[in-house]
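Researcher: We're teaching a course module on how sequence relates to structure. For the next exercise, students receive a sequence and then see the predicted structure as tokens, so they can try to spot secondary structure elements on their own. Here is the exercise chain.
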Amino acid sequence: MIRKSDYATLFASTILLVAVPVAWAGESNGVPASSKILKSLNVNLIDGLKDQKLLVLKAEPGDETQQLLVIADGTKPSVIVESKLALPIIKNTYSPASYDGFDVGTFTATKNVINAVDVQGETVSLKYASVSPGEYLYLKTTEEDNAKYNFNLQFQYDLQSKKMVLKNLLLVTNNEACDRSLLGVYALPLGRFSSKSLDEFNGADAFEYLKTLHIESQSEKGSREKLMPVDVSDNFDKALAAYKQGNKEQFNELMGYFIAGGSEDSICAPETYVVGKYYFSKNPGWSNDLGFLFEQSGHYGEAVELLSYVVVNNPDRIVAYLNLADSYWGVGRKELAAENYKKYHSLMVKSGKTEKIPKRVIERS
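Model: And here is the predicted structure for the students to work with:
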């Protein structure tokens, strides 16, 4: 099923996590005896090393960053990854008691599947052919007054350089206008972050740059790749199969998972999410087919919103005009339906496929 937002409360920053004393004493291991841990995770970032832990150490008074460590071999701990600049403490204008910056965590990527965490704190699995399998450390931007988007910067251990190197930069967007659910996830070029290792990563500088990158990425859509959530892809395949089998009840139930907002009383307006969630510029055929399934299941508003965008951006996709015309007809906008029936008819005639034109096209146009 498509994941519905549970409106999880976000941490203002990692500095608000409960601090506990560090179990390892001794400056020689890189962990001062007086340090306190804000976050401790068992990890497996580097093959061949036992008892790896990711630690975030509490900043001392006056410090502008928290310390990030990866330690191996719990009985004789040694620091194998250290960053003193990756986790800045950035004051925001929203509240003097909260801070912006990065949260840190890990996930395991499998073949062609990667994870991302949105502003709600929800994890989504995504289809991504370029991913290298294995465990990743991620830095996720957090802003107290930003419920619209965040960035996920994903680092993986590189055996050649023996460093945690940035491999993936993801922009994650949410529906700020309605239910705060996930809209889209985009893989961006690394650009100035190319080959950047965690030990040299300056979080404060990166945080400011990412704000600019968010604006630039919207005007340079060709340079970003929209990733499809695994559950969306799976639901589509199941819904299409149910439609072809004539299982109307199952088909309608599965199509309901594509509608944002939850209950009948709080369903989101199609224009607030349908294109952002379901239009894939590199796979417009998939978006057209979903629009057709929206129309067949009676979700005419969603169908019109998606298919209108498909035909504007793919004017040679003939069948999309038929699907859009049927959707307009279903919603009662017969003049617009007739206009698109005529466009479909004209394109079919030009393509030499006159005999394949459905009778309703002539009758309704």
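Model: If you want an answer key for the exercise: Residues 203-219 form the longest helix (17 residues). The chain has nine helices and 14 strands.
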